[in-house]
Amino acid sequence: MVELIPDALPWRDVYKLLIGAIVPRPIAFVSTVSKDGIRNLSAFSFFNGVCPKPFIVAFAPMFRGQDGQKKDTLRNIEETRQFVINVVSEDIVEKMNLTAPEFPPEVDEFEVSGLTPIPSVDVAPPRVEESAIQMECELEQILQFGDGPGSGFLVLGKVIRMHVRDDVYVDGKINPDALAAVGRMAGDDYVRTRDRFKLPRPALPQEKS
After folding, report:
1. Which domain holds residue 59?
2. Where are the alpha helices (DSSP H) in 58-187?
3. CA 88 to centroid of chain Cα atoms
4. Which residue from 38, 44, 113, 47 is spatially nearest to 80, judged by alpha carbons?
5. Which residues does 92 contact at the CB level (< 8 Å), separation at least 6?
6. Residue 156 is assigned to a structural domain of this protein
7. Which tens digits make up the pLDDT trace of 43-92?
């Protein structure tokens, strides 16, 4: 078995280990607006839930690899303390991918992708109309780890309103077949969520009397 010490490797090599080992990863398609009202839309695959009460979600934007600066999404959240997480399904994943380049701040990725911005209820950033699940979030906390390329942040947000498409919300639960979410692998690879299997959670063994 190969033994690896991350601190002894270049950060790009560690990044390859991270995205190859932690799979599949859910995708947060984050919409924000700058203090000047410029819309931004960007996808992050370091994304997960934290807890339901309060409903906290987290995603982790890294410093930009090309110049070591903060990404537009992070700067917008620092300025406005608001964002929307849009879930990525099979039907919008190709349009999501069009937002991947690190565009200048003045570029509106809604226009680049052809996706439709619609007003949120409680926050300023728009939602992606084509997304089956949209979470309006207020910033709770930002944690920074390291500085410059290879380093990054953990953004914690409180979901204050959730929008779920009718066919996806069934009997108080999310219908995974209707959602058809996609996940991120390494490189250019993605994964569908169609191939699933059940594994009942075992109960604790009965104590002997």
Report:
1. 25-190
2. 72-80, 93-97, 109-113, 176-179
3. 9
4. 38
5. 115, 128, 130, 131
6. yes
7. 999 999 999 999 999 999 999 877 889 999 999 999 999 999 999 999 99
| Residue 76, in any domain of the structure | yes
CATH of the domain at 175: 2.30.110.10
Count of the separate structural domains present in the chain: 1
Query: Which regions in the chain score pLDDT beneath 50?
Result: none
Q: What's the distance, Cα to Cα, between the start and end of the chain in Å?
A: 45
Element at 148 (helix H, strand E): none
- The tokens describing 33, both together, are 């607006």
Question: Is residue 165 one of the residues assigned to a domain?
Answer: yes
Number of other CB atoms surrounding residue 29 within 10 Å? 27
Which of 143, 112, 105, 131 has its CA nearest to residue 30? 131
User: Checking DSSP bridges between strand 117-118 and strand 82-87, what pairing results, if any?
Assistant: unpaired
pTM of the complete model beyond 0.70: yes
Q: Per residue in 56-70, pLDDT tens?
A: 999 999 998 778 899
Would 198 be classed as within a structural domain? no
